[in-house]
Write a structure and sequence with these properties.
This protein is an alpha+beta fold. It folds into two domains: 2-103, 2-Layer Sandwich (Double Stranded RNA Binding Domain); 134-176, SHC Adaptor Protein (2-Layer Sandwich). It is built from three helices and ten strands, in the order βαβββαβββαβββ. It has helices at residues 14-24, 74-103, 137-147, and strands at residues 2-8, 34-46, 49-60, 63-71, 106-111, 116-121, 134-135, 151-156, 162-167, 173-177. The strands form three sheets. Strands 1-2-3-4 form a four-stranded mixed beta sheet, covered by helices on one side. A four-stranded mixed beta sheet has the order 7-8-9-10, covered by helices on one side. The chain is elongated. The relative contact order is 0.09. It comes from Psychrilyobacter piezotolerans. Keywords: Coiled coil, Cytoplasm, Translation regulation. Residues 75-102 form a coiled coil. InterPro entries: HPF/YfiA_ribosome-assoc, HPF_long/plastid, RHF-like, RHF/RaiA, Ribosom_S30AE_C, Ribosom_S30AE_C_sf.
Length: 181
Amino acid sequence: MRMIISGRHLEVTPGIRAHAEKKIGKIKKYFDQIAEVYITLSAQHVKTGKVHTADVLVYVNGSKIKAKVEDIDLYAAIDEVVDVLEKQLTKHKEKLRDNNHATGLKKFDYNVETGSITREKTSRIIPTRIMAKPMEVGEAILQMETMGKKFYIFMNAETEELNVVYKRRDGDYSHVEAGWE
């Protein structure tokens, strides 16, 4: 885990750096795959005095987890931001675990001859019925955009066959027609 500590309107002394590294280093036990941690410590003058902010950005498994805490005392802000991060990392880990359990529906198969048990992932096919009304290609693109979809299946009014329109990555639209040769 790489830790980058910077200060905004605040000099990061060796004591502050050591405290931040020690406290924020504890989040490793909540999640193994933490790549980088960016810690920004700042001070701001307000009417009531100085307010210190501990802003932490954690890169985990391709995701970003962010926590920000303000307090009068900088050390207290660092301690509080660690508590917030612990909760967020635990929640993130549970979410990943729940997603893995949901997608990994497994089927056990017992072979009588060999006496072995094998595990296979099962995938389900969920049938979907669409009611495609006849329309022009331009109208289908308009329907797709207004519904906020990535593609739209429609009955082409000219050919009376099912067609698909979709938005390409470069921003243009593409039209797919069924063809027989």
